[in-house]
Every structure is written in structure tokens, then in C-alpha cells.
Design goal:
Distance between the termini: 36 Å
CATH superfamily of the largest domain: N-terminal domain of the delta subunit of the F1F0-ATP synthase
Largest sheet: 4 strands, mixed
Mean pLDDT: 88
Order of helices and strands: HHHHHHEHEEEH
Number of strands: 4
Strand order of the largest sheet: 2-1-3-4
């Protein structure tokens, strides 16, 4: 079975090209975000995975659920995905679209995981420092993981900066030859 991200990639790339030609990046983000959320809904995901639901009925249902939220191009995307039995890949398509959009706009998604809730001042300072280090604008998502004990872990794509107490203790243990 193919990996969902591999299946989603050509769709995300085509949507990026369409969004660029329409100059509607934000509108496509909204549409894909809505569709991805709808597909994750347990009731709707059960219908999508039901082989007895034909494509015409599924398309009608998705367009009805999305009424007023999709452009003509967005509705066409739904039709194509239903026809190719790829509706279930919408969350991966949305994720890859956002990643590609950020790249086109010179932005980078960054995740900051902190042991404690960061103040606005701390978040701003970290955002500025990360932006300078990466040489581009960053979109920061902050979450809390109390197992870190202290400090932060910063993830920007393949780059990971582990400035957490847990990470430092693990490094110390490795240096001392102690396995964790």
C-alpha cells in the first residue's frame, strides 16, 4: 500500500499551482483546512470509507457539507478526489499544501515545545532568534510537554534544537557512558 504522503504530494503541488494562478493562497488554506477537518470527523469518515456509497452520492454529500465554503475550483477538487478514491488523503494534502505555501512565501513552520507555558515576551524573543538563525520568517506553534523538566525543544523541518533539561541530562549520560 502506498504511503498517504506520497499519494497526497501531486495533489498538493497541483493545488499550489492553482492557488498561485488564482492568487488565492489564503482561500485555498481555508478550503483545505475545512475539508481536512470534515474528513477527520468520525461520522463522515465512516461514510467515506463505506464501499457501498457511490461516488456521486459522496460528492453530493461533501459539497453539501462544504456549502458556501468552496470556490468552483475547490468543488472541482472534491470531485477529482472522490473520482480517484483519494478523499481520505485530504489531511495530508492540506499539510503538504501549507508546507509548500510557506516555502513559496519564504516562511518556515517551527514548533517550540516547552516544559512550561511561555510568556508572550519569551515567545517573541524565541521567534526572533529562530527567524534570524534560519534567515526567513517563521510561523511558530508552541506546545507544552512537562516531561522535558525545563527548557525547550525547537523543530524546524529536519532541524531540531534540544535545549531541554531532559535532552541535556541524556547528553550527560551519554558522555559518562550511562545508558538511559
Amino acid at each position: 500500500m502506498e504511503d498517504l504522503s506520497t499519494i497526497a504530494r501531486p495533489y498538493a503541488q497541483a493545488i499550489l499551482a492553482q492557488a498561485d494562478s488564482e492568487k488565492q493562497f489564503a482561500q485555498w488554506s481555508d478550503m483545505l483546512g475545512f475539508l481536512a477537518s470534515a474528513v477527520r470527523d468520525p461520522a463522515l469518515s465512516g461514510i467515506i470509507s463505506n464501499p457501498s456509497i457511490d461516488g456521486v452520492r459522496l460528492t453530493e454529500l461533501l459539497l453539501q457539507v462544504s456549502e458556501g465554503r468552496l470556490s468552483d475550483s475547490g468543488a472541482n477538487l472534491v470531485r477529482v478526489l472522490v473520482e480517484n478514491r483519494r478523499v481520505g488523503t485530504l489531511p495530508q494534502i492540506a499539510e503538504q499544501y501549507e508546507s509548500g505555501r510557506a516555502e513559496l512565501e519564504g516562511r518556515r513552520q517551527v514548533e517550540i515545545v516547552s516544559a512550561f507555558k511561555l510568556t508572550a515576551k519569551q515567545t517573541t524573543a524565541l521567534t526572533k532568534a529562530i527567524s534570524e538563525r534560519l534567515g526567513r520568517k517563521v510561523d511558530v506553534e508552541v506546545s507544552i510537554d512537562n516531561t522535558l523538566l525545563g527548557g525547550v525543544v525547537i523543530r524546524a523541518g529536519d532541524t531540531v534544537i534540544d535545549a531541554s533539561m531532559r535532552g541535556k541530562l541524556a547528553q550527560l549520560g551519554t558522555a559518562l557512558g550511562v545508558s538511559s
